[in-house]
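We close this part of the discussion by returning to an individual protein. In the encoding step, the backbone of a single protein was reduced to a row of integers, each denoting a local shape. The sequence in question and its structure tokens are set out directly beneath this paragraph.
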Amino acid sequence: MQRIIAHLDMDAFFASVEEITTPGLSGKPIVVGATSKRGVVSAANYKAREYGIHSAQPITIARRLAKKAEQEVIFLGVDMPLYEKVSNNIFEIIKKHSNKVEQASIDEFYIDLSFLKTFSKAEKVCKGIKEEIKQKQNLTCSIGIGNNKLISKIASSESKPNGFLLIKDNQSFLNPLNIKKIPGIGPKTAKLLNNFKTIKDLSKLSKSELKNLLGKAGIKIYYSARGINNDPIVEYREAKSIGRQSTFEENTTNILIIFDEIEALSESVFQTFKESNFSKFKTITITIRFSNFQTKTSSKSFKKGIDNKKEFNINVIKLLLPFLDKRKNPRKKPIRLIGVRIENLDK
């Protein structure tokens, strides 16, 4: 049976939810993210993007751009409970049209419509979903349809905002696109492939050539450049990790401030772990981002796993200490962000 996979991606989700739920915000440029001078933009609506503001941008740069804007740019903090509630409403709408749905993130979903057998029927269903989301939630989304997850995701991205794109010929669709449209090709990988601008250019490389250039990742990119992807729809994805991170108000080398923050993060992570259905975890990872935005991680795994707070806290500190001395921070670079995560959770 032919696979028919749709990818639904909400448009500027956080900012759009704020726009429809907060009186007086309609039609205004909205930025959701850190409310202090630290951190980054979580989302920006399309009005804000007209001024160069975008997600993952340092909030200080976003505020600088906002000062030059013709309209007042509204900055709001993140209201995750609200976004999760709306996301659940959207999920319920989608589930009425397919029994096989994967929620890839809070604002994007893969929908298996293979049971419909034809692309024309899938198109009709997806346009119905778009209309229902608009009517019931007053939000827009973009949908891509293809014969696999890769194609449908790229198609939804290409159709933004509030678009719809059905792809029947994978290679013709991919050929003119920039290589960065392929998931897995970020800035670093793109530099290694700087002689290749379009996916058509990239598809001329053999599997062995790409493997030599990029290692194992090259094999996946080889198939992606040809529109080949067999990833299944995962209807339920159990939590694989629990983590927290925090950006300091000011870059710091102060050990007391850093210890206080890591203690608070560890407390939050362990509390969430205890409230979960898991009995132990086998890996602890800490993340450090320095003032120059260089990010480092350090992990330790435990064969038997950890289930008590004292052992967890001791090992978090052991992982942290090298970043506070010459072992992993010889130049004593100030720290901007710190994070704690537990992984390999067992029931």
Remarks:
- The chain has three domains: 13-81, 169-236, 241-346.
- The chain has a mean pLDDT of 92.
- Residues 83 and 112 are 24 Å apart (CA to CA).
- The chain is about 40% helix and 25% strand.
